[in-house]
Automatic annotation (TrEMBL):
Localisation: Cytoplasm
Phylogenetic lineage: Bacteria, Pseudomonadati, Pseudomonadota, Alphaproteobacteria, Sphingomonadales
Domain of life: Bacteria
Natural source organism: Sphingopyxis macrogoltabida
Coiled-coil stretches: none
Family: Belongs to the transaldolase family. Type 3B subfamily.
InterPro entries listed in its UniProt record: Aldolase_TIM (IPR013785), TAL/FSA (IPR001585), Transaldolase_3B (IPR022999), Transaldolase_3B/F6P_aldolase (IPR004731), Transaldolase_AS (IPR018225), TSA/FSA_arc/bac (IPR033919)
Biological function: Transaldolase is important for the balance of metabolites in the pentose-phosphate pathway.
Name recorded for this polypeptide: Probable transaldolase
Enzyme class: transferase
Pathway: Carbohydrate degradation; pentose phosphate pathway; D-glyceraldehyde 3-phosphate and beta-D-fructose 6-phosphate from D-ribose 5-phosphate and D-xylulose 5-phosphate (non-oxidative stage): step 2/3
Keywords of the record: Cytoplasm, Pentose shunt, Schiff base, Transferase
């Protein structure tokens, strides 16, 4: 499963990229606003930190303006993936862009039927938001399982990008279901490295090693 960082914070992306485990980045208008940076500048910087796809989102609601915005966004770098909302105009834009060879991430997906439409529109990625789904009393991971089943039934190429990930259990469940990608805040990704028994184990080994008086 590919790991994307869901952030526009350069320092966090650098830190994760240095592990060699980062496969891409997703941003959205709220994350760009949180960074306090110019969207073109920060997107360009992010694109230079990974060879993987960097999702940059349109903010228009109509197809024509979405196409104009996509043109501006895709000129930022070769690895920009245009993010469009799961609406009729968003999917029209997805179809037009992917037919032209541009990567598209269809975002704000909350049902398996919507995911089916995104695949039919040729989306590179579909982003079901599991955390927000759970928050509203639905089962986010069941949504991922349903999309996996449908995409496998028809051998759709669209990758399932599990988004709105809140904790390690979401990551684990996504991997068990066979999602293609998950995008999570840096804190969640860093949390995956940690285990109390790993820390205790290191502590114990180092204490015993110190008693030997040796060095490597
Ligand atoms: C996905 O691409 C979105 O940026 C993101 O995962 C939204 O997550 P949130 O629900 O934590 O805002």
């Amino acid at each position: 499963m590919k790991f994307f960082a869901d952030t526009a914070e350069i320092a966090d992306i650098k830190e994760l990229a240095a592990t060699g485990l980062l496969d891409g980045v997703t941003t959205n208008p709220s994350l760009i606003a949180k960074s306090g940076r110019d969207f073109k500048e920060v997107t360009k910087e992010i694109c230079a930190l990974t060879t993987g796809p960097v999702s940059a989102e349109v903010v228009a609601l109509d197809h024509e303006t979405m196409m104009k915005e996509a043109e501006i966004l895709r000129k930022i770098a070769d690895n920009v993936c245009i993010k469009v909302p799961l609406t009729i105009d968003g999917l029209k834009t997805c179809k037009a862009l992917t037919s032209d060879g541009t990567m598209v991430n269809v975002t704000l997906c909350f049902s398996a039927a919507q995911a089916l439409l995104a695949a039919k529109a040729g989306a590179t990625f579909v982003s079901p938001f599991v955390g927000r789904h759970d928050d509203n009393g639905f089962d986010g991971m069941q949504l991922i399982a349903d999309i996996r089943l449908i995409y496998d039934n028809y051998a759709y190429d669209t990758e399932i990008l599990v988004a709105s990930v809140r904790h390690g259990i979401h990551v684990l469940e996504a991997a068990k279901i066979g999602a293609d990608v998950m995008t999570a805040p840096p804190s969640v990704i860093k949390g995956l490295f940690k285990h109390i028994l790993t820390e205790k184990g290191i502590e114990g080994f180092l204490a015993d090693w110190a008693k030997t008086g040796q060095s490597i």
